[in-house]
Amino acid sequence: MDKEALLDRQKHIRNFSIVAHIDHGKSTLADRILELTDTIAKRDMQAQVLDDMALERERGITIKLNAVELHYQANDGETYIFHLIDTPGHVDFSYEVSRSLAACEGALLLVDAAQGVEAQTLANVYLALDDDLEIVPIINKVDLPSAQPEVVKEEIEEMIGLDASEAVLTSAKTGLGIPEVLERIVSDIPAPSGDIDAPLEALIFDSVYDSYRGVVLAVRVKQGIVKPGDKIELMSNGKQFEVTEVGVMSPKAVARDFLMVGDVGYITASIKTIQDTRVGDTVTLADNPAEKALDGFRQITPMVYSGVFPVDNAKFVDLREALEKLQLNDASLEFEPETSQALGFGFRVGFLGLLHMDVVQERLEREFNLDLIMTAPSVDYQVDQTDGTQITIDNPSELPDASEIKEIREPYVKASIMVPNDYVGPVMEIAQRKRGEFVTMDYLDKYRVNVIYNLPLSEIIYDFFDDLKSSTKGYASLDYEITGYRASDLVKMDILLNGDPVDALSTIVHKDFAFERGKAIVASLKQTIPRQQFEVPIQAAIGNKIIARSTVKAYRKNVLAKCYGGDITRKRKLLEKQKAGKKRMKSVGSVEVPQAAFMSILNMHSEDTKGK
Ligand SMILES: Nc1nc2c(ncn2[C@@H]2O[C@H](COP(=O)(O)OP(=O)(O)OP(=O)(O)O)[C@@H](O)[C@H]2O)c(=O)[nH]1
């Protein structure tokens, strides 16, 4: 392509994300956009798609990067190149949202016409506004009888301060309004700026590891152009690689001759060591480097920590390798080796929240075939010791003896809970019960309020959101941010099995709640620990004082007795089932403890500190 053509191409690029609350219809809208653009481009794309399949057959891989390229023929007769960059909707992942937004010039703000603006949507729109993105408001699900587009417009104007008079009314379900959305992307979202003649600056906003090609970088080119054969340099560490392929997802990987300013695509360069690449880093050309790296992303700190141990101790090295691979495209994942008396060698892993923790656990087990025991999540605590030193701990078993502690501080958040008027009572009741401190309450419109509380992070990471949802018929939405640390009256509660303290079961609790929590955990453990050949006393203790106790009676479960000696296949099935159930057991001293027991703290909703 000559210079003229490249400049013309740049004018026709539109990079955008969809910002939406979970269930407001983001996937459905994206599918509609794909459908509409695909049909138009079908004839032109045939050859390309075939190429892509050949490529895949050859290599036997597909790469998953959350950015697709689409071609849209607009009403002005010109063909535009759209890059749609996916963003996650959950509160745990707002960090990833900001990563995706950094690749865009605009965002579609999608709001459910029946639900209105939610707390998390608001948080994500603010991220987009911080990045100076152009925002196109879309009110979806207008086909629903309960749709109130006018009320939602008002909410968007009042809460976000955006002009919503021009909001597109859509039904991603029926297809209503989608052609207008495509036109608005062309007219409202600016083409990328940046100089094609400047030295290459490409921002890495995601990356995946592919065993065949090495690291695949998802990049947004901010300046310049990059081609296969170019020698690139990663600006954070000066490492150099030769580009083997550049391309875009469309929606499968399609190799291209180049990626230029404004493009969102991938680069492979036989990068074998995952430690070399970092999301947020800048890629430049080795013999014509950019003067300085792009801003990158703020380092994100984990909010909750959990011990992750292989059931089979011999898998420790495998676990480390798996965590390293995951860390590649999940910069928020932190880990360091941990040794537990009860569980052996493992890692203390930091997560953004419980959903993130679930996702990581699932990936470790599925993608890396590991059987894991994970301990109850904990926040981090700042401890002033009587000897004048200060330590930070994220593992309850590391809390020093009470006699050595002057003060313990725990992380606090400012939580904003949006809810219809009718449910303010239950919301306040839950927040109070979780040691919340009321801050203020704002009316969003005639129907909804935003209730703000200061809360200890430890109280909301467990079941706060579930409780909120169930007592507001699912209407409440929640967003929170850490505001700092506060001194609290906290103590370590140990759990003893068979008289021995089990470090992996220790938790840190507020003194006022210790008795109830102790009772609840002991009761929950009694349910989860199977009967053994001997009696197992379970005790909760603070210091030397036992505050709750219970006993698992001795009993060797003879599952075969149930079979009445009959059907042999049934018998085998039962044995297999029992074997599978055992896999996630760990011998702690002489007691067999299942994975669920380590999460007892998460299963105490009912007995929790109600009425406090
Ligand atoms: N009636 C109606 N339903 C819709 C519309 N758009 C989406 N839905 C439905 O709303 C539900 C959620 O839609 P999704 O597209 O999965 O929402 P999402 O925001 O991608 O949700 P997550 O993937 O969970 O983040 C689905 O059951 C859709 O069928 C619409 O315009 N009208």
Automatic annotation (TrEMBL):
Protein EC: 3.6.5.n1
Organism field: Lacticaseibacillus manihotivorans DSM 13343 = JCM 12514
PROSITE patterns: G_TR_2 (PS51722)
Protein localization: Cell membrane
GO biological process: positive regulation of translation
Keywords: Cell membrane, GTP-binding, Hydrolase, Membrane, Nucleotide-binding, Protein biosynthesis
Pfam families: EFG_C, GTP_EFTU, GTP_EFTU_D2, LepA_C
Membrane topology reported for the UniProt record: Peripheral membrane protein
Protein name: Elongation factor 4
Transmembrane segments: none
Gene: lepA
Domain of life: Bacteria
GO cellular component: plasma membrane
Catalytic reaction(s) noted: GTP + H2O = GDP + phosphate + H(+)
Recorded family membership: Belongs to the TRAFAC class translation factor GTPase superfamily. Classic translation factor GTPase family. LepA subfamily.
Major localization class: membrane
Residues that coordinate or bind GTP: D23, H24, G25, K26, S27, T28, N140, K141, V142, D143
Single GO MF annotation: translation elongation factor activity
Domain called Tr-type G: residue spans: 11-193
HAMAP family: LepA (MF_00071)
Function, as annotated: Required for accurate and efficient protein synthesis under certain stress conditions. May act as a fidelity factor of the translation reaction, by catalyzing a one-codon backward translocation of tRNAs on improperly translocated ribosomes. Back-translocation proceeds from a post-translocation (POST) complex to a pre-translocation (PRE) complex, thus giving elongation factor G a second chance to translocate the tRNAs correctly. Binds to ribosomes in a GTP-dependent manner.
